């Protein structure tokens, strides 16, 4: 059996099960997340955004972070804290991915890091949070006539400044793809 073209790491441990796609992972897992396609050139900015999203959700919408209501203590993550929580799992995931699937020069990795309230059974990755890192292959589309398009639909996030998985899940399930082609004003080139 061929190795999957993706790796899922939870609190530093490689999942023994075949990981889902990054989209399916976000659909099934609550929490604050960031996704970095391609190189990790701006990784510090992604981690800062992840720390801000997790802190904001813990304060204003702890249920979206997978934390119990009401929250008994405030979660305040700074950049150094999120680095120490997330980066060990990132290193494990990238190392495992490169072992499973030798990359060509035209391929790159897409990395999604998600933090959520710790599962009492797992013990968490620190700061009362579980850390998940999903790494898969990423081949950017060729730009031009059939290049990238963007459609914005649906309501905004409940916690507008935070990126969290249940909002991505709501958007994925609430949009009707057949409606997008009917109004060219909703498309950007």
Report on this structure.
- The protein is α+β, with helices and mostly antiparallel strands and 189 residues long.
- The chain has one domain: D-amino Acid Aminotransferase, Chain A, domain 1, CATH 3.30.470.
- It is 32% helix and 20% strand.
- It has five helices and seven strands; from the N terminus they run E-E-H-E-H-H-E-E-E-H-H-E.
- The chain has helices at residues 22-28, 43-60, 79-100, 165-174, 177-180, and strands at 6-10, 13-14, 32-37, 108-117, 129-138, 150-151, 187-188.
- The strands form two sheets. It has a five-stranded antiparallel beta sheet with strand order 2-1-5-4-3, sandwiched between helices.
- Helix 1 (22-28) packs across helix 4 (165-174) and helix 2 (43-60) crosses helix 3 (79-100).
- The radius of gyration is 17 Å and the shape is globular.
């Amino acid at each position: 059996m061929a190795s999957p073209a993706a790796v899922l790491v939870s609190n530093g441990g490689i999942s023994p099960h075949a990981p889902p796609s990054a989209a399916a992972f976000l659909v099934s897992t609550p929490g604050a997340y960031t996704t970095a396609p391609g190189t990790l050139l701006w990784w510090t900015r992604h981690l800062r955004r992840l720390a801000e999203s997790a802190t904001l959700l813990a304060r204003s919408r702890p249920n979206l972070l997978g934390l119990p209501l009401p929250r008994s203590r405030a979660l305040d993550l700074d950049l150094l804290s999120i680095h120490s929580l997330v980066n060990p799992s990132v290193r494990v995931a990238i190392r495992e991915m490169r072992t499973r699937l030798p990359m060509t020069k035209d391929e790159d990795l897409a990395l999604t890091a998600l933090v959520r309230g710790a599962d009492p059974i797992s013990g968490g990755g620190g700061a009362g949070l579980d850390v998940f890192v999903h790494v898969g292959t990423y081949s950017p589309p060729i730009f031009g006539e059939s290049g990238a398009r963007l459609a914005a639909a649906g309501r905004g996030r409940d916690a507008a400044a935070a990126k969290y998985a249940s909002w991505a899940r709501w958007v994925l399930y609430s949009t009707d793809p057949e409606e997008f082609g009917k109004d060219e004003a909703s498309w950007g080139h």
